[in-house]
Input
Amino acid sequence: MAHRGSARSEDRRAHSARLGFRVDEKTKRLVERAAELEHRNVTDYCLTALTDAARQTIEQHSSLLLSEADRVAFFDALVHPPKPNARLKRAVRRARERIGQ
Output
């Protein structure tokens, strides 16, 4: 029995962080209706919707989509990098002097 109590208290701690916000009545009714249609309580519905939206936002900001032409140009630059110009060579020389190489 002690193990079950321990698991419950871990579960409570895992869900102890709170988010709170206020909405107008129209939004509240809309969310309640959507939750009802999915046979879920409002908290569960909101948590799932917010989590899905957060993951989608993070995914959109973590990915870079390139056109075919951009992809070709990118990989071409990796495979055939341009030769360093005088300005870049000067910058590298100064950086090496600063770090003692």
Remarks:
- Residues 21-63 form one domain.
- The radius of gyration is 27 Å.
- The chain has two domains: 21-63, 67-101.
